[in-house]
């Protein structure tokens, strides 16, 4: 990989990690379901005017939009609002690699390799360490919501693989059109929407960041790199996301990094790396593995 493209890959991982700081700021003004709906609406409305049809059956667009958009990010934002530190969430979400391998085995008949099984066990041990540390001082049900968000992400990966979109960026744009309406309806029934009248400037900046920097810029660059170099070369850089996520939230938001949490984070990342890398078929440069093009945050 050329140095400039390596720098771009690291930059996207940094943007996705810092995204968790933006999420925290956005949730200061907006309730979680409303913020999730606005994130996808702001990302989709300009972009959808410049892309063609998604090139897959509409049922896949709707299914992935509901599972990957509404469910994954709705659960994530609710969990962070309920007290799970944003940086910790960036780490726990990486457990999607375990769920993806599990769902692929059950639903697609893809038998996990020994390396994947080892990696899943290691990552699970790390999550137990992190959960033990967090459960001593934080709301465990909210932590479980982050795990449910990771499982939703994994299901979105499986659905995306079944859809096999030839242009993943175009597919993402159309997927982003789906979540706003059901989320806005649910938000109207369950949340206080007064924030729409006078949102904090920091929350508006955060909304712009999660919609345009994290979603449009991040995913656009990521898919471009995968088309050029293949998923095998690019995907490992996603393991930097929780590194940037936990460090940036510690610096900006003052989130605590305990020894047990840092050790658990390291164990999770080792396990996720083993699960992802030992189970991946080599993808030739210029060809996309659409199941691995789903954005990280």
From TrEMBL:
Intracellular or extracellular location(s): Membrane
Ranges for domain EamA: 6-131, 142-275
Topology with respect to the bilayer: Multi-pass membrane protein
Principal subcellular localisation of the protein: membrane
Domain of life: Bacteria
One Pfam family named in its UniProt record: EamA
Transmembrane segments: 33-51, 58-80, 86-108, 117-136, 142-159, 171-190, 202-222, 234-253, 259-277
InterPro entries: AA-Vitamin_Transporters, EamA_dom, EmrE-like
SUPFAM superfamilies, per database record: Multidrug resistance efflux transporter EmrE (SSF103481)
Alphabetical UniProt keywords: Membrane, Transmembrane, Transmembrane helix
Family: Belongs to the EamA transporter family.
Protein name: O-acetylserine/cysteine efflux transporter
